[in-house]
Amino acid sequence: MIEIKKYSDINDEVKMELEQMAKVAFAGVQIVKNTTWSTPHWVIMNRQDSDIAMYYNVVERKVNFDNTQIFVAGINNVITHPDYQGKGFASRTLKHTRDFIFNTLKAEFGLLLCGDELVDFYKKLGWHKFPGNLIVEQPEIGPIQWSSNVMLMPKSRISHYQEINLNGLPW
């Protein structure tokens, strides 16, 4: 069962469970450990009985695509619990929530950051690798260029942009 909830409405127990799943999933990933991340606005969970089989967060924000402000839904922490990996939970949930991103939130793009090993997975789901520069903010540093993969899911068509500035922390 897929649930879409405001992050602020999630109780502390569920937040702790999600944080623990993220801690396990990203245990050895230095870029994740060394980055300050945005607080999400939404949590999308796919439950199997009472278990959270997988989840991801959504951050809503206006970002600059080559100096044009565009509203995006930023996807982060796409995590499947180890007991449910390889069973299609992430694929089904991401496909199912496309309507939420584009029709409910009215985003023009979905945008996510991922490691090299996940680029092909997202491409199969209709995401496109962004070849340009991504600028993110980090406390005490200011704006920096993101050093990993950026994936875009367009609402209708993808245009050719050179730079995206998230106007804040990454998600």
Automatic annotation (TrEMBL):
Originating organism: Litoribacter ruber
Superkingdom of origin: Bacteria
Protein name as it appears in the record: GNAT family N-acetyltransferase
N-acetyltransferase domain sequence ranges: 2-156
GO molecular function: acyltransferase activity, transferring groups other than amino-acyl groups
InterPro entries reported for this sequence: Acyl_CoA_acyltransferase, GNAT_dom
Cross-referenced PROSITE patterns: GNAT
Pfam family, one: Acetyltransf_9
